[in-house]
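Per your request, structure below.
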């Protein structure tokens, strides 16, 4: 059985994962509006991954005899200044999510809940990937600067990403 504290914290995390998905769909729609359909595809795959993250938490709460309570999902932004600005915002967001996962681990350890601690380790590893993949795109975008040809090439590269249902990872 999950403690009330841990159940509430996981429910907040489920909301954060669903918000992440909503945020990345909003970013994908921004990319569509500036004719970056490859970047939009990348973000849509990322949005699907976030649904997998939320789903894993929901299954875990149910397995432990807890109750998933869904809250309202916040409204994401509509516009960003540029493609680079969008990926920088995505990277910042992932850093916030990593910090939330770290706080969850700290809470599980404080409560001596080894099952939750063990379950959360999947997310700890996943956050390394999440930060690395957004960070890699940020670095490449900084390298190409304002070059139109570079922008075309990176859009093409980002469009190669496919969502991998089994792993919940597009990498
Ligand atoms: Fe679910 Fe991108 O963290």
């Amino acid at each position: 059985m999950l403690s009330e504290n841990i159940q509430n914290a996981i429910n907040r995390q489920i909301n954060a994962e669903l918000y992440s998905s909503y945020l990345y769909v909003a970013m994908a729609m921004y990319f569509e509006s500036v004719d970056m359909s490859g970047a939009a595809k990348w973000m849509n795959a990322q949005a699907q991954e976030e649904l997998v993250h939320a789903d894993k938490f929901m299954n875990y709460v149910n397995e432990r005899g807890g109750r998933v309570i869904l809250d309202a999902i916040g409204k994401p932004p509509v516009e960003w200044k540029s493609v680079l600005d969008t990926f920088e915002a995505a990277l910042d967001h992932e850093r916030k999510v990593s910090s939330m996962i770290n706080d969850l681990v700290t809470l599980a350890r404080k409560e001596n809940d080894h099952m939750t601690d063990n379950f959360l380790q999947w997310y700890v590893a996943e956050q390394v990937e999440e930060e690395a993949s957004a960070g890699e795109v940020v670095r490449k975008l900084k390298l190409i600067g304002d070059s139109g040809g570079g922008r075309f090439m990176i859009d093409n590269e980002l469009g190669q990403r496919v969502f991998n249902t089994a792993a919940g990872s597009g990498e």
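The pocket of MU-OXO-diiron is lined by residues 17, 20, 50, 53, 94, 97, 130 (CB under 6 Å).

Regards,
D.
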